[in-house]
Amino acid sequence: MTISSDTPNNASTDRIEKQILLKAPRSRVWRAVSNAEEFGRWFRVDFSGKQFVAGQSIQGNITYPGYEHLVMDVLVERVEPEHHLSFRWHPAAVDVSVDYSPEPTTLVVFELSEVDSGTLLRVVESGFDQIPAARREEAFRMNSGGWEEQLINIEKHVAKG
């Protein structure tokens, strides 16, 4: 398994870019990314009975140990079957005593490309420079590590079939 970052350590503080080559057909990877319930299984959020629909918000309880008290809330921006899914959210919104709603959101984009040996999944999260300075660096750090973990999760998930 190889996860690569498109941004060197000294690059932009506004965006995180990661990619992984998944040994699965694009249709399988697309289902794992675009089906809300299946997405929730590898991302560790309970989106039971919900769908990703462009222009609509979706919420689910986080199931990752230690974060079960949190709700993931995203606004789906764009859905292009087997190619592109994007949503907006408040990165690293982990303090339940804070109202993050006035803050700008970041944009998360999943892009799928078919390659000879499987599917290249690229994840880009951008907009960190707009996050309040007091939490910008921590949000960037948490999500950078988080995306590495999530790419490992999706790789294991699609390998199961």
UniProtKB/TrEMBL annotation:
It comes from the Bacteria. Gene3D superfamilies: 3.30.530.20. Residues 23-158 form the Activator of Hsp90 ATPase homologue 1/2-like C-terminal domain. Pfam families: AHSA1 (PF08327). InterPro entries: ASHA1/2-like_C (IPR013538), START-like_dom_sf (IPR023393). Belongs to the AHA1 family. This is Activator of Hsp90 ATPase homologue 1/2-like C-terminal domain-containing protein. It comes from Paraburkholderia aspalathi.
